[in-house]
Design goal:
single chain, 210 residues, two-stranded antiparallel sheet, 10 strands, globular
């Protein structure tokens, strides 16, 4: 039986949510050169993929945190994902803005959230974890119990692991970079000679191709 991590990786490659270009790298907003570009918002456009991801999230959340009370999505990429998971689990849902509104109630967290509630956070993608952990901090400042975070995919950077450890926040992902590379090889998405480049980038992305 195919593992969830492998199935999700295949989906991301098939629908081009993940694009791999080792010989013609992308430039991220940070200025980093990268052989990979990931946009997991595309998963929402494919019902079969969307449903399987929703169910995988729900199963993983219940297995690890059966007493979860609220699902929180991180804006903007994981708002819809959070809503899907909350609906599957029949739980309340909130979402966390990247910054507080400049008008009205100036909310950072949107939805009905009470102090002390047990919250699981849903993300679409983990790179360094910086923006994701800001959402965790916002929930903690609202006196909520952040049980952990789940994401579709992680690049697996050491910096992200360190950041989540420092923040004392558990992270689990449905799939990951190593699984995706193995899958890309199996289905012929990348050539054998490109795999070394893909693995090398992950070790030091800030300085790759400088």
């Amino acid at each position: 039986m195919q593992s969830t991590a492998k199935q999700i990786a295949e989906y991301l490659l098939q629908i081009k949510a993940i694009k791999l270009e080792p010989t013609n790298p992308f430039t991220w907003a940070s200025g980093w050169k990268s052989p990979i570009y990931c946009d997991n918002r595309k998963t929402l456009s494919y019902p079969k993929v969307r449903i399987d991801i929703k169910k995988a999230f729900a199963k993983a959340v219940l297995a690890k945190y059966p007493d979860v009370e609220v699902i929180a999505g991180v804006a903007t990429g994981a708002i819809a994902l959070g809503a899907l998971v909350a609906d599957e689990l029949n739980l309340p849902m909130v979402y966390i803005r990247s910054s507080a509104k400049a008008h009205g109630m100036t909310n950072l967290i949107e939805g009905d959230l009470k102090a002390g509630q047990k919250v699981v956070v849903i993300e679409d993608l983990i790179s360094t974890g910086g923006s994701s952990l800001k959402a965790v901090q916002a929930l903690r400042e609202a006196d909520c119990d952040v049980m952990g975070m789940f994401a579709i995919f992680t690049y697996g950077f050491q910096k992200a692991e360190d950041n989540f450890t420092d923040a004392k926040c558990e992270l689990e992902t449905l799939s990951d970079y190593n699984t995706m590379i193995d899958c890309a090889q199996e289905i012929g998405y990348v050539k054998e000679e490109d795999v070394a480049q893909l693995k090398e980038w992950r070790k030091d992305p800030a300085n790759w191709r400088k």
